[in-house]
Amino acid sequence: MGGSMSKGGSGKGVSLLEALPSLNAPLHVVMLGLDSAGKTTALYRLKFDQYLNTVPTIGFNCEKIKGTSGKCKGTSFLVWDVGGQEKLRPLWRSYTRCTDGIVFVVDATDSERMDEAKMELMRTIRAPENHHVPILVLANKQDLPGAKDAATVEKILGLRDLGPSQLFHVQPSCAIIGDGLEDGLESLYEMICKKKKLSRNNSKSSKKR
Hints:
Blueprint: H1 13-18, E1 27-32, H2 39-48, E2 60-66, E3 76-82, H3 92-96, E4 101-107, H4 114-125, E5 135-140, H5 150-156, E6 168-172, H6 181-208
């Protein structure tokens, strides 16, 4: 799957990275989260700017979307929305290899499964291939009573304990009407750009030694 995601050849890597990401191949983003968190609803709201009634994802959905506002306007994202049922979660790792960013969708009203969401998120973040990959957490379903705010979700998921090298942002959202999705996408884009810049600087520093 990841073989076609060209990040630039060995001879041109630095010059490509110094160009704006929007001039390169689409940014590769994987959307994860427990079943019924609202991943597919968020994906198609971003894609078509309308609500589509969805069914549980068995396997994955993949859509190319474009940022429409802020710094990521015009940037293409190839978003893989992977099923969140327990039997499908072992497949997540095959989608996160070589990814530019991860979107983790949480049902902010579902207190009973928040620990389960934390466990799956930490398992994903701590996989070696996902080392320091930027994470956007969508605290979804903010339109419903009892939805936890971004700060509470951040605390429950243990994101503050990951250390300063892990880039993350928690965005309150309502996928059904689209609230927060564009803002979240822009935050993810900015984190991806920051990660690329840090990687480039680290590469230059190591070459000087």
